[in-house]
Amino acid sequence: MKVAPATPRLIDRSDLLAALDRAAAGKVTILSAPAGSGKTSLLRAWADRARQPHGLAVVQVQRDQHDAQQFWLALLDAVRQASGTTSRAEPPTATPDFNGPAMVDRVLSELADARDGITLVIDDLHELHSPEALAQLTRLLTNLPANVHAILATRRDLRLELHRLRLAGELAELRGAELRFTERETRELLDASGIALSDAGVALLHERTEGWAAGLRLAAISLAGHLDPERFVAEFSGSDRTVAEYLLAEMLDRQPDEIQQLLLGTSLLDRVNGELADLLTGRPGSERILLELEDANAFVVSLDPERRWFRYHHLLGDFLRLELRRTQPEEVPALHRRAAGWFTRHGQVVDAIRHTQAAGDWSEAARLLADHSFSLTLDGQAQTIQALVRAFPQGAADDPELALVHAADDLLHGHLDEAAAHLAVAETYVKTVPPDRQRRLRVAVVSLKLGLARRRGHLADIVEQARFLASPVTGESDEDIALDSDLRAVALYNLGTLEAWSLALPDAERHLQEGAVLARQIGRPYLEVGCLAQLGFASRIRSFATTRQRCYEAIALAERHGWGAEPVIAPALVTLAANLVWTGELDEGERWLQRTAQALQTDAGPGITQLLHLATGRLHAGRGRQHEALEELRAAEHLQSQLAGSNALASQVTGWMLATQARLGQAGKARAALVALTDEQANAGEIRNARAVICLAEGDPAGALGALADVLDGTAPVIGYVTVVEAQLLAALAHRALGDQRAANQAAEHALALAEPDRLVLPFAMTGAGELLEALPRHETAHAALVADILDVVQGASLPAKDQASSSQADELSPSELRVLRYLPTNLSRPEIAGELSVSVNTVNTHIRNIYAKLQARDRSSAVQRARELRLLSTGRTR
Amino acid sequence: MRVHLPAFDHDGMDPTPARYRIRIHGHLGATVLSAFPALVSQRHGADTVLTGLLDRSALYGVLAEIDAFGLDLIEVRQLTADRKSPGSGDSRSP
Fold first, then answer.
1. How many Å lie between the alpha carbon of A201 and the closest alpha carbon of chain B?
2. Which of A215, A302, A352, A509 fits as disulfide partner to A243, beta carbons 3.0 to 4.6 Å?
3. ipTM
């Protein structure tokens, strides 16, 4: 919102402007002075001066602002506009849960990016009734970049801990006494308004008002065009009335009836436009009056350059409100209702609810809140909602409509038991609601139930909920459709997430994809990111390449919105990390695990924390650090108790933990734990593998083979094919222990064949398959490159991360060329390769020539090296 | 008189009301008086004295209105001792 330039009849208070200039040498200036001291006018005059080289970012805090996020979004928007640089990031969008520190960081970085520096002006700071926002602001102010100056205007001293700035001489203050008009300035003000008054009169006026800016301005309004200014001043001076009331009453009385009615009737609005004023007064022509009032400098100020919206000086507005209530009390509720209707029609829900409450229509207000709470939360107004809820008086606060709102807030803050209780109330209530609203409220209830189930790690009755959501969105009005779309997108997100974590993966994919598409359509980027992040996690049944692709997409979108370190993207971060660990890119995987840990600092449900521990455990195991691995797996196992119902990771967690214990010489302990499992648990492939590891540790290879049988023949349930790869390797170890090298080699080859398409490395590293692979006759394997990679990792290296930028070159190698490429690391001659591929030697020669050219290699070994650097060998065969 | 008003602390409201007497310079007309429905007003010479029962939250509401209308606050006095501490302007530690 741009600042309208100061109207010309305000005087140039050059001393004060100079004081502000001097203060601008420091970091922060505070203007702390009572209401009506002229702070805003002064700031406007200062901002108008052409001498300002800096971009100017102005924020005027809204009246009674409880919502930290709304404050910061306005501030960030102002800063972005002022800096003028088109930032690479998306414009800031609200998030349901608000990360204050991250927001401050974002503002700081935008400030630092501004080429010419920024002056940040925050007016009406006393209206910020959010202690957390004030604390965040303190951090901002004590860390301002060079070239940034902040000016704060407030009616009273605030709890901003700026001692350090004060001690360093970086803090300047202008207080009420300094803002008082001198007698000379009083004279200037009157002169500028064309008011002729004697020196005695000026002195009298100055004395009576004590130099109070608002008083002087009001007096000037009444004096302008007054037939006998001396008499006015004399009477004013002789009155016992307080300055404000005397002059305001004066000013109002002198207005024609039409204007008085306009002012009174619109006084209950925070801001007014012509259309709204016409509605409230029942008369046309308000816009013209408002414009004229502003031109006459009569305490009416426009809020936008087009001069559509206006606001009354708070002094005038407060007085008018009282006067209206005193003289026309019966009008007040009706006026509020009319205003509420206008705001509802124009989609300004918060204002509509406020006015509905002010009219005393509490049940209507509750209904509005219930209908709109999801959309408002997605708009980042969660704290505003809470302020609105708090405004309900004792009796009305128990309205069952509000149970839904309470439940959503409880869920947001992690008060899960309270959320469940409120949801129960809401659910019962919804059955009694008329049909036109019932569907919407049911979707809301279901959505919250799913959200609760997700936070608790409990399985809800998914199938039933899914069926219910399958019916399309129908609504009578655009507003209905918008509301219902918001609800539906949230429901799909919650449903898809729960399904992903309960192994209903095809359904999860479907719902999350639908959710992402819908979220994009309705402009809800936060939900879109959420759905894509969970989709990454749900892609476990797909190829690793697909999973990786989806994770990268989700992360890129999140980063564009500045959410790269938020909990919402954590599922994609950790899935990507796990994916990289699986393919042996351990260093890169570790970096993503660290990012996940950071993102989960503020909000970590048990499920994702468990996944983080599991992936970290695998990382350690891949590096041969078995003790650290066991620690992580134990932590993961510990979280099992918080995750009731079948959950995605249980058998993996338990299985790997037991296997690691066995490898660390705790076979007895592991076997004892095995006994404690149920038959169903013990049947899982991952547990059977663990049993095999225990047998091998106990020196019983035959027992190991017995345990592995069902996994190898495909009858045991497995999480994924990685379990089968592992089983093959364990079988190979068992065969070797039994002296059957041929069977061992065969099993190892099976494992390699399964691992090839995705380039799986980790199972080999974890099962200590190094010796197995080295025993393989090198020239007989089609998987030489993979073996080389595995041995690298086993010997402690980490495979280099896939070079994303040059992966485009990989596309230039045709599938046939890639097939030949795979044989280059082997000892096979060209005729032998031709034989393997069933093509002519000439064909092979052609392919190799092209390969060398594209990889800019001179010979076989440099071609192989280049290919490995580019991770060409990991693009994988298409199945 | 310069008045420092501590930041609003909505969570720490002391619900026990006390009787306050607030003195303002100048006379208040009907309109501005209607901003203080919980208080009774009396003229004392050139001043107006407002008296009434206010809890902490209401007291700060009154002070905010006084600030909003640029009224000249002379004195705030608590007439009955509440158990915490006597006198005005005592700040609760957060």
1. 21
2. A215
3. 0.77
